[in-house]
Amino acid sequence: MKYGIAIFPSKKVQDEANSYRKRYDPHYALIPPHITIKEAFEADDDMIDELVTELKYIANETEPFTIQINKVSSFVPVTNTIYLKVEPHDTLNELYEKMHSGKFPDNKQYNFVPHITIGQKLLDDEYSDVFGSLKMKDFQIEDTIDRFQLLYQLDNGSWTVHDSFVFGKESL
User: Fold this and answer.
1) Of 27, 89, 100, 115, which one is the catalytic site residue?
2) pTM over 0.90
């Protein structure tokens, strides 16, 4: 089965992202707005049981933290993806590194760029128009992050939560 690990921001942040996603992101119906901490990977039940124990440990030793989103950015020229740029944060980077070492599969495809996708698979002209107008918009979003989720992919391509891991809690 295919799994992934993500952080779902607050409803306020999700509502802001969805105001763009419903129009510009074909994956809108497959997963809520999120920050990917670990790209999709294949795992069987035994491996997931081991990883859940590891994820509980990681969550227990992580304190809640605040993220800042101040602008949109894009992955052009690699892809016509537009996203809310999450400002660099040590805790986010540490989570990413922990989930790509030890018992976790090391499936890094790209450098870690914390973001919330709001548009993807756009045609060049549409990308230019949308990105040009969003680039002028001022985003001042602050959000407290206190958990991450282990997700799995259903047959229809959508993602659902397998487990949530709250930071700083004794859940072992």
Assistant:
1) 115
2) yes
